Amino acid sequence: MMISTRGRYALRMMLDLAQHQGDGYVALKEIAQRQSISKKYLEQIIPVLNRTHLLQTTRGYQGGYRLVKPPEQYTVGEILRATEGTLAPVACLEGEANDCPQRFSCLTLPVWQGLETVVEQYLNGVTLQDILDQQRQSGGDYVI
């Protein structure tokens, strides 16, 4: 499993919005500048985050984006699942049901299931607020 640029940038964008949540709606141009990410690339990520109701959008002069919920209610896991689709380490664990013909005799399946459990537990246990708090304690910028 490898987190794509899309997933990494979505997380950085959400963290930027969490940092500036007191500013109201934040323009995409500002996020792109602060995060050194192409505005065009962020425009491709926005629909995914909107579709999963992670962002709130408004248009016009004061338009932009903001978080729907407080930062402590967003997990890294939910953001990455929204952009990556799945965090499964192998194809046979990607869907609701494992349809692999080898599923009953596969000796490695428990290894992949265990890995998936550890990854899910970790990513679902880290919130945007946790990352911001960690950054504040270290006194530096957050790095993902």
List the helices and strands and how they pair.
Layout: H1 5-19, H2 28-35, H3 39-51, E1 55-58, E2 64-67, H4 76-84, H5 109-124, H6 128-138
Antiparallel strand pairs: 1-2
Could you describe the 3D structure shown?
This protein has 144 residues and is mainly α. It is 50% helix and 6% strand. It contains six helices and two strands. The protein has helices spanning 5-19, 28-35, 39-51, 76-84, 109-124, 128-138, and strands spanning 55-58, 64-67. Strands 1-2 form a two-stranded antiparallel ribbon. Strand 1 and strand 2 form a beta hairpin. It starts with a helix and ends in a 6-residue tail after the last helix.
